[in-house]
Write a structure and sequence with these properties.
254 residues, alpha/beta, two-stranded antiparallel ribbon, 10 helices, globular
Length: 254
Amino acid sequence: MAISIIGGGRVGGALADLCAERGLPCHLITRDAGWEALGAPAGEPVLVTVRNDDLDGVLARLPAQRRGDLVLIQNGMLRPWIRARGLDGVTRGLLFFAVSRRGDRPEPGGASPFTGPHAEAVVAWLSRLEIPAEVVGAGEFAAVELEKLIWNSAFGLLCQVHAESVGTIVDGRAAQLRALVAEMAAVGEAALAVPLELDPLFDRLCAYSRSIASYRGAVKEWPWRNGWFVQAAKERAVATPVHDGLLAQAGLAG
C-alpha cells in the first residue's frame, strides 16, 4: 500500500519522514507538488493533514474518483462540513500524538482511533510506523470526537480568559471548568445523540490536562470549535450561560 499524505506541515512531514526511514511507500503532496499521485485509480488511503480552513481547497483539487479514499484527521466539529459536501462515507481519525515543531518526531499520547472504510489499512500503516492506533465503531468514534472537542474548546477558552495553563485551570478553577464542561456535553448530546457521563468525562479531561500541565490553550478555529457549540446550542435551545459569559469576557461573539 502506498498511502498519500496531503499536507507537508508538522504532522504530514513527520509521517512522511517516518515512512522514508522505514522504506515504506508514501506520496507526500504539498501545495505546489505531488498532486499527480492522486490520478491513480481509487482504492488506497489519502490522508489529509491540512488545517480545517484549507479543506475546501484540497477538495477542489482532488480527482473525483479519490473522494471515497479521503481520511480526515482534523480536530473540531467536521460533521456539518462533511455532510454539506456529500462525504459521509469517508474515513475519520483523531490523532493522539504530538509534533511540537516541523522536523520533530511524533510523540504518541495514546491510541489514535479511526473509523470508516480505510480504518484498518491506516491503523496497520501507523502501527508499522510505531504509532499506536485502533479501529473503532462509528458510535465510539463520535464519543471520542466530542470529548476531544470539549477539551479543546473548554480549556482553550478558560486559558485565554484567565491567562493560565491547563494545569492551573484544573487545580484552581474546577467549579467553573465543570460547569462549562457540563454545558458543552449537553450541547453535544443534543446535537450528536452521544451520551457522556459527566463525572467520568470531567475526570478524564482533568487527568489529561494534568499530564500536560504547563500547556496554555487559546480559542482557535472558531467555526469548528467554540463557534460550533454556540450555533448548536441556539439551534437546539440548550442554555449555555457559562460558555456565553466566558466568550463575552474574552471579547468573542456569543
